[in-house]
Amino acid sequence: MASYTESIEKLIDALVKLPGIGRRSAERVVNYILGASRDEVKNLAEAMNKVKENVRFCIVCHNLSEEDLCSICRDSRRHKDTVCVVEKPSDVTAIEKAGSYQGVYHVLLGAISPLEGRGPSDLKIESLLARIRANNIKEVIIATDADTEGETTAMYLTKVIKPLGVNLSRIGLGLPMGSNLEYADATTLSKSLESRRAI
Prior knowledge:
Blueprint: H1 6-16, H2 23-35, H3 38-54, E1 56-57, E2 64-65, H4 71-74, E3 79-86, H5 89-98, E4 103-107, H6 125-134, E5 139-142, H7 148-161, E6 167-170, H8 186-194, E7 197-198
Parallel strand pairs: 3-4, 3-5, 5-6
Antiparallel strand pairs: 1-2, 6-7
């Protein structure tokens, strides 16, 4: 069996580390790159570098942004008194695609996972509590994933937010147990937000 050159193997190994890319997919990407023009490859490399250099976390909600405040936090039409708490920036994107939520977000940048050594102090929970205390927040919607880590995180958030006296709800119907928010379709997410339940 013929093997790839050293530089191709190195690129395949790098691509396989990306989520959702197995060896076969990596080989297809490499073959695309080999067939592409130098300009196309250069543009791809520059785009990846730009993302790494320019994208950071919003100083308020921890969503992805190229400025101090993300576009959602800057938007004066959003209902700033309703905060939807999610695990990762891709969850914000998924909910925004559904198009029915008009509040703002708070991204935890993870979920509580004792097996992985990740506790509440490793997440952006303190800044969420500070936001609730400092701003006139009326409702917090917990929209963590419906898997074990997401449910553990939701229970912890309930415990620490309830004493602050805001309305607290959890997204409802349509999300099967063990599922990730970012993979749910827009209609399911929209219905989940509409059918949220008080906790």
